[in-house]
Write the structure tokens for this entry.
Amino acid sequence: MAYALNAIRRRRGRSALTAIGIALAVALLAVLLALSAGINQSATSLAQSSGVDLLATSANTSLSSGGFPPVPGAHSLPARMQQVDPNVESASPWFVGDAVFANLSLYKAANASPGGAAVPGGWGPTGAGAVGWIPKWNTGIETPTLLAGPGFPSAEDAHFAHGTYQGASTHAVVLDAELASVLHVGPGDPLWASSRAPPGPAQLGGWFANATQFRVAGISGPFWLVPSALLSFFYLSDLQQLSGPTAVAGDTASVVLIHLVDPTNPASDESRLSSAFTGLTVFSVNDVLGAVQSAVNLYRTFGTLIGAVAILVAFLFTTTVLLMSVDDRSREIALLRAIGFSPRWVGSTVAQEGLVLSGLGVGVGLPLGYLFSVGLNDFLRRLLPGLPTSFSFVAFNGAVVASALLEAVGIGLLASVLPIVQALRRPVAEELRAP
């Protein structure tokens, strides 16, 4: 080992560049592995803690389709599902869409003069994601934490009375803290909402005339299940009416989230509900996780190709440097062999040199990969607001470290093969006689 270390010290610049090349390959592989492991672990943890055991969508819907066709008869689905399957504790139809909001200040400015002349520059309604549900049917399902205000005044969707939209409406809306901050509103404040934004300030008066007035019932925390920077929550019937006559006529929802009394055998409930509701496709949490795993596997394949290129470059670079090292010390190696050092000892010193360079690469690459993983996790979390604090895109665990170590050892050993062959093939006598 002392001989190998001496060879490295004598060529410090070359050795440093080799170690840096290995370090970059190790860091890249560590980041790619940590990212795939983190997404898998966090997705599994979130799915298990969400309380959602089954997910029902419109028939022939794929989890990878990126959208959900309307599910009709939303208000009657919970009772019908419980009648078919007593193991269904709650079935919550969610209508997921968009809404456009305006506050009292904008209302006053729009009505202060004709054509919206009094509206300050840059003022306008704010678009946000929207979820319509019936609070009563969210039993056992994770929902956002209420931070301020009383929240929805009723667990029932009173506006949908006796199968009609003629019941008394509370016109209550809950906003997440980010949206409430943008709109400068708090609990009790009035708010106007519509499914469409006005073309410009001149049309604001007409927009307010056709928008629906709501009152802020509460301010909630972010919600990972619908990752949106700005999010609002309505009664199901209110959001259906905002979205237009098609949603009302079909009493539509986007998905139905199902929580089971006993979730130990969700496949049985999935089969029972699928048979009873032929217009729906029912997925289990394992199906959802399988879709996540498929996406991660696709990323991992791409990441493996990138990692393989990095490893190949590091391997070729290390091999080249070791060949140069053997060539520089060809007479020295021949002299050692002449005085009795065995070929095995000579080969082991070359391999040791490769392993020491790999060790230096690991010593630099692992901390570098860890720091980059932490930075990448922070960046991705800022891109996707609403995720719980426990969610991490990366998992820098023992498996990641072990894989990086194996990679470095593999580079060091494989890169030593050709230089060892070269060191042992050179005739001792010719090297000693060379000028």
